[in-house]
């Protein structure tokens, strides 16, 4: 209430001040003469005259937010020519004229009819003019003036944001800037202290402070620890009027979060960790985990683990699980319970990232002792070697010892071992093994030329626990013996030109040959080429060994002729260098060919000579004549066949079912009982009264009723059929079982009549077979036969 009274008193004072300014303006207007001329001297001595406005006024002011009962007097307009007789009319136009500002057209008094807000509009521009009341003739030129709205402190300060969020590192020095908050005041900053703001902190002491003039928040306490308290809530106030009493204020909330720094080293929660591992564990298997706690977060809390000491450094390793920040102890090499039963490790945990500002806080690492106990396990047998290589000669007799494998049980029990061969690696069963001592033997002779190496796998298993087994690879090399004779390396063939005996022999070989041996190089080359002893003095050809595993074949004479002999077969003996050596006889084919003067081959065929010697010209003419006669006969035969009306082959469309066979024997009908024996329709088993079903297997024997048994030689077809129907209806072995029974009797008194054509009274001429045309292509021939009768009758 006191503040409201003070505001009303201030508004009244401001109103009185405005009235005083208006009266002073009016008084000065009265003092100034109206429409007096003013003379000025021009540059050339010419006197200029201008009219002077007869009424003037100053700038007007009106206070904002005025809530009095009467309109506020803004000011008064008055002209010097106004004598007060009411002939002058004052007109007001411009911004707010007629709505906010009104003028008394007689007195010139201007009033504000509405409450004004400077924050909405700070000033208004208006236009005033004095005119003759009767004629509306302007008495003076229009003049513009401004009405300014005078500010009062009616707007509290407002911050740009309702809430602020800021971060500052923990353990920051006092006075570290955190954030700057800014408030604004809608009041006029040029008038009074309405917009002069002062910042202060309402909540958040003693941790933070704020600068009164700038709004910058700073830390006020040293060594604030994030691990103790991470988040702070601060309330900042902005007050106008320079912070004095009566000023308006606004507040905002600031959430300040302490960010983490690496100011805490990792610490193990215990001094010793106990772990165990089985001796059957494989390398890479996890043994246990350790974890050092670091209250820091993010990269500041990252910890890495290392083994720095201990007797198990060579057997164990540790890795870091960065998701759980744990150290994972793993087996690096196999351990043996019988060799050593316990190990000790010293594990160190250290921070990955260290802040040099806090290095004085001490080493950012910690150590712990890890004790690992080895547990005994039933281990599989162990071979004395990781693999075995044995040798055996090819063609060795079955039962030859190849070699031995040996395994033992590493456990203290030292269980006996049983050996076996993995038959998936010895599908041909070349080998066998003694299950007790591990000696490997052959089961059949081996051929090195087929397989030089044989790879098998041998199992060793404990006799008392077959699941505990080990496997070792065994490579067996088949040693070569000289069991293959050398042969030609290729199917060689030689050519020699026919020539006169007087022509000198050529020093060039007819052909150069080489050999190939399947045996190893130790039993193969060097190869020796020669002629067999029985033709060592061959008059036509000879062989010269080149002593480089090749040989040349040369002609011993000239004068070869195709007419005498066009082909020569030369046997050549090839021996290898094995112990003992082996040899084979290979045949070389040498053809006699025709050559030109330069020795180039022209033809190696002897056909021309053979034809001249065996066939005459007359024989050739006879053969050609026979061939011509045969061709003529074939052409005539084909021509005659094409001229025939009927084709040689029955085509598909002329089906054999179109043949009509006529029988002269016409039956006697249903009543003719002398033409056949009815007893043949009866089942022989039915004579005794029982007819077995062949489509099902009955569960019990059916005994027919005696009254239904027909006479063996009965000729009454009706009784015969009725008997069969009753037997089928009363058969309990498979009711209701579907079956088909065919009878040769049509029955009497049928409404549909008989289907037999023998008793029909009509003739073929009385029937219409045109419907057969609609039965499709299968009945086309039948429709043509029966449907064409009418056409024939019409033609006749």
UniProtKB/TrEMBL annotation:
InterPro entries membership: Cadherin, Cadherin-like_dom, Cadherin-like_sf, Cadherin_CS, Cadherin_Y-type_LIR, Catenin-bd_sf
Gene Ontology, cellular component aspect: adherens junction; catenin complex
Every Cadherin domain range: 79-159, 160-268, 269-383, 384-488, 488-609
Domain of life the protein comes from: Eukaryota
Membrane topology: Single-pass type I membrane protein
A matching Pfam family: Cadherin
Transmembrane in keyword set: yes
SUPFAM superfamilies: Cadherin-like
Membrane-spanning residues: 619-640
Keyword check for Calcium: yes
Major place of residence: membrane
Keyword entries, A-Z: Calcium, Cell adhesion, Cell membrane, Glycoprotein, Membrane, Metal-binding, Repeat, Signal, Transmembrane, Transmembrane helix
One Gene Ontology MF term: cadherin binding
Localization: Cell membrane
Signal peptide coordinates: 1-22
GO biological process: adherens junction organization; calcium-dependent cell-cell adhesion via plasma membrane cell adhesion molecules; cell migration; cell morphogenesis; cell-cell adhesion mediated by cadherin; cell-cell junction assembly; focal adhesion assembly; homophilic cell adhesion via plasma membrane adhesion molecules
Function: Cadherins are calcium-dependent cell adhesion proteins.
PANTHER family: CADHERIN-11, CADHERIN-23
Protein name: Cadherin-11 isoform X1
Species name: Physeter macrocephalus (Sperm whale)
């Amino acid at each position: 209430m006191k503040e409201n009274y003070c505001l009303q008193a201030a508004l009244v004072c401001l109103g009185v001040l405005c009235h005083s300014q208006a009266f002073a303006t009016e008084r000065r207007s009265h003092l100034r003469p109206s429409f007096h001329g003013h003379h000025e001297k021009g540059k050339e001595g010419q006197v200029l005259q201008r009219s002077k406005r007869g009424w003037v006024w100053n700038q007007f002011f009106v206070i904002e937010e005025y809530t009095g009962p009467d309109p506020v007097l803004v000011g008064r307009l008055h002209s010097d020519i106004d004598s007060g007789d009411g002939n002058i009319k004052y007109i007001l136009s411009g911004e707010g004229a007629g709505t906010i500002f009104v003028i008394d057209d007689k007195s010139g008094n201007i009033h504000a009819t509405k409450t004004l807000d400077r924050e909405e509009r700070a000033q208004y521009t208006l236009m005033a003019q004095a005119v003759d009341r009767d004629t509306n003739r302007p008495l003076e030129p229009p003049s513009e003036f401004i009405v300014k709205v005078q500010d009062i402190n009616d707007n509290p300060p407002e911050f740009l944001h309702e809430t602020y969020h800021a971060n500052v590192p923990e353990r920051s020095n006092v006075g570290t800037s955190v954030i700057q908050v800014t408030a604004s005041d809608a009041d006029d900053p040029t008038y009074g202290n309405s917009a002069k703001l002062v910042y202060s902190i309402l909540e958040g002491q003693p941790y933070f402070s704020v600068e009164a003039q700038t709004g910058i928040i700073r830390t006020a306490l040293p060594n604030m620890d994030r691990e103790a308290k991470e988040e702070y809530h601060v309330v900042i106030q902005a007050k106008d009027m320079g912070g004095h009493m009566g000023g308006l204020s606004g507040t905002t909330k600031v959430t300040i979060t302490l960010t983490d720094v690496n100011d805490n080293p990792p610490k193990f929660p215990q001094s010793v960790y106990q772990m165990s591992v089985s001796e059957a564990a494989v390398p890479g298997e996890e043994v246990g985990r350790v974890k050092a706690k670091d209250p820091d977060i993010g990269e500041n809390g990252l910890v890495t683990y290392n083994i720095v000491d201990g007797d198990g450094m060579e057997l164990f390793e540790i890795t870091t699980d960065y998701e759980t920040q744990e150290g994972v102890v793993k087996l690096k090499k196999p351990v043996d319970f019988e060799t050593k039963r316990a190990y000790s490790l010293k594990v160190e945990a250290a921070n990955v990232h260290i802040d040099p500002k806090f290095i004085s806080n001490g080493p950012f690492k910690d150590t712990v002792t890890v004790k690992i106990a080895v547990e005994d396990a039933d281990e599989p047998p162990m071979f004395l070697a990781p693999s075995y290589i044995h040798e055996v000669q090819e063609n060795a007799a079955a039962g030859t010892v190849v070699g031995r494998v040996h395994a033992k049980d590493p456990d203290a029990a030292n269980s006996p071992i049983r050996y076996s061969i993995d038959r998936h690696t010895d599908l041909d069963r070349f080998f066998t093994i003694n299950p007790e001592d591990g000696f490997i033997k052959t089961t059949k002779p081996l051929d090195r030329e087929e397989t030089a190496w044989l790879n098998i796998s041998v199992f060793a298993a404990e006799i008392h626990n077959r699941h505990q087994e080990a496997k070792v690879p065994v490579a067996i090399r088949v040693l070569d013996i000289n069991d293959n004779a050398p042969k030609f390396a290729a199917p060689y063939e030689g050519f020699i030109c026919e020539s006169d005996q007087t022509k000198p022999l050529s020093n060039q070989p007819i052909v150069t040959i080489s050999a190939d041996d399947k045996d190893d190089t130790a039993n193969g080359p060097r190869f020796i080429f020669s002629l067999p002893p029985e033709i060592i003095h061959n008059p036509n050809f000879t062989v010269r060994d080149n002593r480089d595993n090749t040989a040349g074949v040369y002609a011993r004479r000239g004068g070869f002729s195709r007419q005498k002999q066009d082909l020569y077969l030369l046997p050549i003996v090839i021996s290898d260098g094995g112990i003992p050596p082996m040899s084979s006889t290979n045949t070389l084919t040498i053809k006699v060919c025709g050559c030109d003067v330069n020795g180039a081959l022209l033809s190696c065929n002897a056909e021309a000579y053979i034809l001249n010697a065996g066939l005459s010209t007359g024989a050739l003419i006879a053969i050609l004549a026979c061939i011509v006669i045969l061709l003529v006969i074939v052409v005539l035969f084909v021509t005659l066949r094409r001229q025939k009306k009927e084709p040689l082959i029955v085509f598909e469309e002329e089906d054999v079912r179109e043949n009509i066979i006529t029988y002269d024997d016409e039956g006697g009908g249903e009543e003719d009982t002398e033409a056949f024996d009815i007893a043949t329709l009866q089942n022989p088993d039915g004579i005794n009264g029982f007819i077995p079903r062949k489509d099902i297997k009955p569960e019990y024997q059916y005994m027919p009723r005696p009254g239904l048994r027909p006479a063996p030689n009965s000729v009454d077809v009706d009784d015969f059929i009725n008997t069969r129907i009753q037997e089928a209806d009363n058969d309990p072995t498979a009711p209701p079982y579907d079956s088909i029974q065919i009878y040769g009797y049509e029955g009497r008194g049928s409404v549909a009549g008989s289907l037999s054509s023998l008793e029909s009274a009509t003739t073929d001429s009385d029937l219409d077979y045109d419907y057969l045309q609609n039965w499709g292509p299968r009945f086309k021939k039948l429709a043509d036969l029966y449907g064409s009768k009418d056409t024939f009758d019409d033609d006749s």
